Amino acid sequence: MNDLPKQPAAPDPANEFASDNSQIDPRDFRNALGTYGTGVTIITATAADGKPYGITCNSFASVSLNPPLVLWSLGVYSSSLTVFQNASHFTVHVLGSSQQALANKFAKSSEDKFAGVNWTPGLGNAPVLAESVANFQCRSVNRYYGGDHVIFLGAVEAYAYNANEPLLFARGSYGRFLAEDERKSP
After folding, report:
1. Could you tell me which of 44, 49, 59, 12 has the C-alpha nearest to residue 113?
2. Region (Disordered) spans which residues (predicted)?
């Protein structure tokens, strides 16, 4: 780790987005990206056969307030990519600080991630998990390919939220937000 800028030689425009042509070290780049703290979400959808699917994701972002649009991305080698590509709807769940175990459960491959999880079918039958800090039920609007990920754009058709504390993630670890007044010594 150092503070010197990482500036490789200018890329050949014809190969700039080709796989394995980057001069940037992927592990070091991931470490740099990890300095940006994010929320933790679980994205859910239902397969054509009615089976619910879900993954833990921290690549969620707001795109637009009017119309209300959000995005998230999923690796092209994900075993559930086809489900999300074919689903008419997906739900984004912002997890609370007490839901780290749930985040870990949905981050791992498992035959039934929904076993023991309280949920109800939402729009397009996408599962809506109970007790998340917020959820955004979205109609899948478009997909864009970006490197080794697919970016999903969703139109928010319904949402809910509460005042619970969100779960945060930075530098490979979970954490929580401390408001200015919480950081002051007594």
Report:
1. 44
2. 1-24
